[in-house]
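Entry 0007
Protein: Septation ring formation regulator EzrA
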Amino acid sequence: MTQVGHIVIGFIIVIAAIYLFIFVAQRLIARQVAKLTVKLQTLKDIPMQERLVKGRKMSLMGKTLDDFQENEALYNRIATTDFDAVSQQADQVLVAAHGFNVWQTNQELRNLKKQVAQVARNIDTVNQGLTDLERIDEEHKQAVQDLESKYKELRKTLLSQNFIFGNTLDKLEDVLGELEDEFAEFARLTEAGDHVAASEIYESLAMETNQLEERMNQIPELVKDLTKTIPNQEEELQTTLDQMIEQGFTFQDNLVENALMQIEADRQVALETLKDLTLKKVQERLVTLHQAIDQIYQTFEKEYQASQIVQNKLETLREYLGHLQQQNQNLNQLVGQLNQNYIFNHDEENSIRDFARQLLQIEKNLDDIRLGINKNEVVYSQLTDQLMIDEKQLDQLEEKQLNLWESLNVLPEIVQTAQNKVELFIEAMRKIKRRVERQGLPGAPTAYLNFFDQVSEMLNKLQQQVNAPRVNVDDLQRQVSIVGSDLDNLQAATNDLLANATLTGILLHKANQYREYPEVGQAVQNAQVEYNQFYNYEKAVEVLGQTLDRIESGTTDRLREQNQQNRLF
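Output (structure tokens):
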């Protein structure tokens, strides 16, 4: 096949493809036009004329009539002009679709779609306007019936139950009358078909009617509270106040009387406020009134409870006071008795006199309270704190009395214990002396003898002190402690003295085993001088021990330990 043949075949294929594309596009456009035509027919079939005829029969007026006529005109234009225009546009699209100008055909199709959509929107506008008109017409007619029935019921309530509304009745009737006048205008506009103007009235009318109903529901309870409940409580409070005053109660600065007068004044103000139907202010004032009333009840309860506490406390503290006064006398007698045998160092007599002064002041406080009660001059709630203070002071005084009583009663026991210790000290000194004497020593160091004499002298003084006609117990206890400590030291010094003296003899015996050593002989001579002439047994042990330890290491410590073991057994 020649090159020309190939070109011809290619051209034929292109032409066929273009034709196929145009054919398919025509069919698609025709199908879309058919759908739009069906939609247009659906819009035509809507029974809008019947609804417009029904609307014209409503006898509309004012803004409502203007809105209806605007919707009617819009639909008439759609029915007489727009439907035909859309049909013609559909025909033009179909004609254009048979040509080869695809771009122009699509433009015409877009215009057709816009026209159908606009017609649909306009019909929706008319349809919604008629729906709103029918709805509001029905609502207003129903509202007329409902409000007329409601106002009749409210008027009936005001007439048949006027007593529950108290001083608000005239104002409620005025409000209801105004609402009935507004309702008459609303009913007239609704009947005339001016629903726009009727809606403006109905909005406020419905709100004000609800407010009136709410007020009529709330007012009876407020009236009852202000005309019955609170006056009854005022009367009860006044009766209680009179009874309590007659029974001897007193209230500070006429607190309750002033509060009751203020409550009554506030109640009258609340009634006047209620008359103007300002219910929120009335409710706020009622809260304040009830709080004030509750406060008075609490005051009565507080004073009554305080009176019970005060009466019981007075009786209890009187007994308590008498007990402590008697106890103070007993203390005074005990001090007088013990003063013959003991010297006091803690100002016990002044303490007892101070107790008596404090007890006398508390007695005066209790007498003043009792006198004030008898004269009806006291506020019970103001007395409880003072009585608590008096009770606490009595507790403290009792504790001090008991401590003093115990410290006084233990004096004979302390002295007896000291006497027993002195006897033990004397026996201990005798034993120390016998131990030293039994050892048969040539003598004792001067320091030891001086210490022995010092302890002996202190013990003699202590013995005289413990047996004196009047004993200074504090000083006695202090001296017993000192002598006991010195005696322990003397015992230790004696043990060391006797141990060193014995150890010296043992070391001398051990030294005989090393006589061949010249230094041992010299050490023995030096030790004998310390032992026999200076009685320095510790030095004698040191001289012998050092020499023997150089010859035989550890000799002194071993012999000392054996000596200690022998002394234990």
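Curator remark: Residues 3-134 form one domain. DSSP finds 16 helices and two strands in the chain.
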